[in-house]
Amino acid sequence: MKFILTPPRLVVFSFLAAIIVGTVCLSLPIATPKEVSISFIDRLFTVTSAVCVTGLSVNDFSTTFTGFGKAVILILIQIGGLGIMTLSTLFALVIGKKIGFYGDEVIRRTLNEQDIISVRKLIFFILIITFFIEGIGAMLLYFRWTAITDWSVFAVVWQSVFHSVSAFCNSGFALFSNNLESYRADWIVNLIIMGLIIFGGIGFVVIMDIIGLLSWRKTRKKLSLQSKTALIMSLILIIAGAACLFIFEFNNVFKGRPVSEGVLCSFFQSVSSRTAGFNTIPIGNLTSPSLMVLIILMFIGASPASTGGGIKTVTFYVLLSMIYGMFKDKKRVVIFNRSISQKSVREAVIIFFLYLAWVIVFSIILSFIHFMIHGEDAPFLKLMFEVVSAIGTVGLSAGITPGLDALSKLCIIITMFIGRIGPLTLVMAIAFKNQKENYVFPEENVMIG
Length: 449
What we know:
Elements: H1 7-26, H2 40-51, H3 61-64, H4 67-82, H5 84-94, H6 100-111, H7 119-148, H8 153-168, H9 187-202, H10 204-214, H11 225-248, H12 259-272, H13 288-300, H14 313-327, E1 334-335, E2 338-339, H15 342-374, H16 380-391, H17 406-421, H18 423-430
Antiparallel strand pairs: 1-2
């Protein structure tokens, strides 16, 4: 059977290529200090985490790599956040090469974008808005850290640029050993990072709609259905997540601390856990209810056509609307007086169950591997937390990942990769096109429930 390089397959191969090149670069002697010894699987883990903008790490990132190694990671984060095909298409456009319909489809698949938008316009908009927001974020962080630290100018610039890119790309990598826990009470740093995470996770199409809505033109553009859904669902998740975390941790992590600090940490973690992976509180010390809340937030993730992962806010909204419609005995899924296509509903259901199945199966696999190696059970909730964090490309850890064995690390690597390209894209990449069925089987009812 002839192998055809379809757009989904090209997306898969492009990310694989970036991981291979990144691993080679991080294996160079100048990437790590002479006194630091790091295995190949750990290098591969770190590179995959960067390309897939996850942020999970098995080593202390701040001390394991040199300036060169960290710069490689930063470049990989930027490439992974924007998408390899986005950058290669930009290069093709710059040198005057035509993209064509095939290239359009690859870009749309990479960005999870289905709307008919000029790819040339979309690519340039994405690049401009990305570097503009990252630049503003870096500048604000520069002013803040200049005011509260005694770092050199170069150190402040480096820290500001790295964390701005990491936040906007929703990667969660930080240059501090305790991530951002040292700034848990700093409202300015928290708000800057949260703003970058939200802009990166809301989706480029939503940003385009907002700009069109706020423009001074006489015929202002209205928010699309996707933008309304993404914005409303994101707002609900942020508020609900923060409220739950504050309540569940009031007598635990926040005990003895100012209420204002607890509120700030709750909102920051609610925003970050959707796909970014930064933390201002020790995740391993959270109560089980809080871990479950974070698992739900990580599972849902960011919005379509964004730098984030998860099943996506719009997917979750469609599923909720479908369930609501079933209770109302409606034949169509309706959101804001618009009927959702059956294709979109089917894809939402497929994505949900693919993610859910992957989480369950790989949580069981990791638990089994841990038992076979150590002779005792690992905390299953924390293992599931790591798997959801990986497939949601979040990067939060309950303390399990650094102690994983090589086989378990490989499972997490695969999960991060699947989370970045999307299970549906993988299925489409490995599937072969079937012949069209020209017949329909007889219909029959079965007992449900």
